[in-house]
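lol ok so funny story. i was supposed to be doing the assay writeup but got distracted and ended up predicting the structure for this chain instead. priorities right. anyway since i did it might as well share w the group, maybe its usefull for someone
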Amino acid sequence: MLLTHAAVVVVEVFRGDSRNRSGRLAAILSVALTWAAFCQPALALENWLTSYDEAMTKAQQSGRPVLTVFTGSDWCPHCKTLENNVLDTNLFRAWAEPNVVLLMIDLPQEGISQAVRSERSQVCLKYGVRTFPSVLLIGPDGSKIALQAGYTGQSAENWVTGFAQKLPARPAIEQVLGKTSENAMKSGSQASTGTPGADVHESLDRAVETARGAKRPILLVVARPGDNKAKSHSESLINDPEFESFARENFVVAQVAPAAASDTQTGQSIENLLGGAELPPESVEIIVTDDGQTPLFSQSGTQPPARIVSGLRRFLAARQSAKFR
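and the output, tada:
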């Protein structure tokens, strides 16, 4: 379609004044080529599946493990670097095609429905993926073979060599197909031994102490004690892969309650951060502070995680911009 449009434009040039025809044609061809490059997808998707179930079916049929890339295509710079340096190279494609089934679990900030986001997040939770990018090898039976969290700039050759060494010996396809769905579910459950939220502090004082050393702002997830629905909202947010990955990279995170220690200095500090307002039932509040005393940013924690992350991104961008004024 792009080449068709370019051809039509070129025809129009030749219908016009011939005096500047060559220069105009060169300019138009330059624009067309730039447009073509811009419109190319960042990651060639011809051989990449986006459905976990479809990838597992193909793995069981072929006996090949599933190489699963967890990415945030419109917000994760390290994901883009991994893509450019490794996944979009001829060397990677030549190795991947005969050896693995390719699956991409993309959690962009925008562009997918909540249903799709939830479905993909469940894959992250199932295998304990908490960092973007992450690359996971999944056996045809659903077992977790190897997980590489993050990307540290390896060349395509070194990266592929490392994963090639992790590939298990391929069993006969008949053996793979003989696996029962019960065993697959069991293996997946055993693989999901990650403990989302393991780095979340339960004390404001501890978060302040950690933040001083890490030189990061503190992100508080605040809910009333004894409010089961609010607690459920908090846990769901903290365990969300997209929120957890983003928060881990940019903040020191604490899950606290405003009245858990109302007679202490800590309890008073939390109430001050809330502006003296009492949280309504089922409510969760997200508060960012540097010192545990002064709120810098707040928003409702009962929104979809993607929206919360979007708001926090804007806060960080404004904060960074203010440093250079």
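Confidence is low (pLDDT under 50) at residues 1-16, 27-45, 171-198. Residues 68 and 153 are 19 Å apart (CA to CA).
back to the writeup now i swear
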